Amino acid sequence: MSSSGVRFDYPAVAGGVRPGEEATVGRAGAGEQGKAAPFAEMLKTALGQVNAALKESDAAAERLATGEATNLHEVVLATERANLALQLTMAIRNKILEAYNELMRMQV
Q: Domain span at residue 101?
């Protein structure tokens, strides 16, 4: 099992925006056919990392159950990494839904 955890590299995923630079978010299909918007790519990458952490956690638990894994702490760490990544994902989802609902309540 690798000792590396789930790492969200937001600046690199978001196009390498540095402090003082202006971040731009484009629409998919607006002027560039076949290219996804930077936000969509960031979201896809982050969700892929969370999914990988969950799969690694499942595999570690299975190795422990079959007796292949001898280090319980590695299994617990993998499980906690996956748990934290999932909690972060759910918190972000909840904030996005709150913002969307707030926009829907606005009167034009």
A: 39-108
Identify the H or E element spanning 44: helix 38-66
Q: Phi-psi region for residue 17, left (φ > 0), alpha (ψ -120 to 50) or beta?
A: beta
Is residue 51 situated within a structural domain?
A: yes
Q: How far is CA 66 from CA 34, 60, 69, in A?
A: 45, 10, 8
Whether 81 contacts 5, CB under 8 Å: yes
> CA-CA distance, 17 to 10, in Å (whole number)?
9
What is the predicted pLDDT for the residue at 34?
60
Cβ(11)–Cβ(19) below 8 Å? no
Task: With respect to residue 54, please indicate whether it lies within any of the assigned structural domains.
Answer: yes
Q: Is residue 63 situated within a structural domain?
A: yes
For 11-48, the pLDDT digits (tens) are: 433 344 445 444 444 444 445 556 667 988 998 999 99
